[in-house]
Design brief:
The protein is of the alpha+beta class and 179 residues long. It has seven helices and five strands. The longest helix is centred in the middle third of the chain and has 21 residues.
Length: 179
C-alpha cells in the first residue's frame, strides 16, 4: 500500500473556498475587500475592529481556535513601507487582540508572527498582516504533522461573537499611546 492511499482525511469544508481561490490565482485582496465592504457586513467578514491606520480580523482559515490577524489599512507588501502611525496602531491592536483572547478563550500562550513572501508560508503575500495564534497545552499534537490536519475546537462564528463582544467592551485609545 502506498503512502497516499493510507492517509486519513478529516473533512474541513471551510478550506475548499481558499483552495479554489488559490488554485485560480484570485487577484483580489480579501483584506482590502472587507475594509471596502459595508459596515453591516463586519460579522460576515469577521472584522473585529477598524482603527485609523490598521484593523483586527479573525482568520477565516485558522491555525487554532481564535486565530486573529492585524493588518495596516494600506495595501502594502513591504514592511519597510509602514509608517510610524501604522506601526503604532498595529502594536496597539496586537495588544487588544491578546487581551480579548485572554479574557474570552483563555489560551496558555501565543505565537505572533509575519509571513513575508510565499516561500515563508504567506497565503496572502501582497497585503502585510501579523498573525496572533492562541496556544494551549497539548495543541501541538500529531494531527498537523502526521495527519496534515488541524483540529479546531470551537465554531468560528461562536468564537467571533465572544471576541467581538470583548473588544467592544475594551477602552481602546483613539491614538496609540494615548489615554
Amino acid at each position: 500500500m502506498d503512502e497516499s492511499s493510507s492517509m486519513r482525511r478529516l473533512w474541513a469544508p471551510w478550506r475548499l473556498e481558499w483552495i479554489k481561490e488559490s488554485s485560480q490565482g484570485v487577484k483580489d485582496c480579501f483584506l482590502c475587500d472587507m475594509l471596502n465592504d459595508s459596515p453591516e457586513n463586519e460579522r460576515e467578514n469577521l472584522l473585529l475592529y477598524r482603527g485609523e491606520a490598521a484593523f483586527l480580523v479573525m482568520n477565516r482559515y485558522p491555525y487554532t481556535n481564535g486565530h486573529l490577524m492585524v493588518a495596516p489599512k494600506r495595501h502594502l507588501r513591504d514592511m519597510m513601507q509602514l509608517d510610524a502611525k501604522e506601526w503604532a496602531e498595529i502594536g496597539l491592536l496586537t495588544q487588544v487582540g491578546l487581551e480579548a483572547l485572554k479574557n474570552t478563550i483563555s489560551p496558555q500562550g501565543f505565537n505572533l508572527g509575519w509571513n513575508l513572501g510565499r516561500l515563508s508560508g504567506a497565503g496572502l503575500e501582497d497585503h502585510l498582516h501579523q498573525h496572533i495564534v492562541p496556544r494551549w497545552d497539548g495543541d501541538t499534537n500529531f494531527m498537523p504533522v502526521v495527519g496534515q490536519t488541524r483540529v479546531i475546537s470551537q465554531d468560528l462564528w461562536e468564537c467571533y461573537d465572544l471576541v467581538k463582544k470583548e473588544i467592544d467592551s475594551l477602552r481602546i485609545p483613539s491614538e496609540p499611546g494615548g489615554a
